[in-house]
Amino acid sequence: MVDLEKIKEKFLASLSVLTKEAEVLNLKSEYVGKNGAVSEILKSLKDMNADERKAFGPKANELKDFIQDQSTIHLSKIEVLEINKKLAEDRIDISLTDQVLVKTIKHGGFHPRTLVQQEIEDIFLSMGFDVLDGPHIEDEFHNFEALNIPADHPARDMQDTFWFHDPHDEEAKDKTGKKRLLRSHTSTIQVRGMLGRKPPFRFIAPGIVFRSERTDASHEMVFTQLEGMMIGKDISVANLIYFMKTILAEIFKKDVEVRLRPGYFPFVEPGFELDIRCLICSGTGCSVCKQIGWVELLPCGMVHPNVLKAGGIDSDVYNGFAFGLGLDRLVMMKYGIDDIRHLQSGDLRFNSQFKLF
Ligand code: DAH
Prior knowledge:
Structural class: alpha+beta
CATH topology of the largest domain: BirA Bifunctional Protein, domain 2
Bound molecules: 3,4-dihydroxyphenylalanine
Number of strands: 10
Strand content: 15-25%
Strand order of the largest sheet: 1-5-6-10-9-8-7
Oligomer: single chain
Number of domains: 2
Low-confidence stretches: none
Mean pLDDT: 89
Order of helices and strands: HHHHHHEEHEEHEEHEEEHEHHH
Number of helices: 13
Largest sheet: 7 strands, mixed
Shape: elongated
Distance between the termini: 88 Å
């Protein structure tokens, strides 16, 4: 008769030195697998007489269960060991301080445009303005017609627009039959904003615009504007000036001196150029203000009745003002950047200089 105790001891001795899952599974199958030692013993039970079977059967079955249980326990021990080993390997010493980490990890910064845009959005939000967005690819209705610039109007040439394909090409038209273009100003969002709203309302719409222009220190083909619109009853030029002064004082964190000059934009009547006293030289003249002492910053005006009509608003009852802030110029004034092309350069040495306010 086989000695079950011996088998058990031998099994335990072999098991105790195993460190890999596969080894344990092999060992287990050597004993209790289909042709394993213990399985063979169990098979031989049928050849025993009744008494022997009674004495031997339960013990052999017990041994089988024991081997299975011990294998399972050993497998989970191996698993725990492996997890601990991995944890130890992957450990990060968070006590490593500046001297080591800061030297090797480069910190990015927000693009200065993003910083200024976020700050201005917050100012307008606190004054009850919504912040809207619009598509970069536009149609001539939103870029021109709705803004009181019909086809063949000379004002279409004020902005060098990027058209899609040949203007005579049928494919360049969208499903309404209008020709498509890259928006040349954020004023496109005026009509989009008006159409979904009932006066009184006020909103701003920041975003990039595109013009086919020769680039130099103060001109880029892609630049940023922030459009604004406020519609209600009995709004006057005095309201416009007050609002603009308040907002500029918030942006520059000090009172700014402004002056209005007449300016022509088909979508406003009257239209103005709002200049601010140069903050770099306080008006004595410098390269930023081209020695004039004033910086042209904010074209604006009272919204033309035709534009209100295009936006579905009754121009006999409501009126309002609109403005188009040159965001890039503001960014340049704020950070003393002397060439607009830096903003678009993608040069990390430039970009990473700017931190949150
Ligand atoms: N869209 C004009 C431009 O890009 C700027 C502008 C002028 C916007 C007057 C306005 C405005 O809202 O009232 O040149």
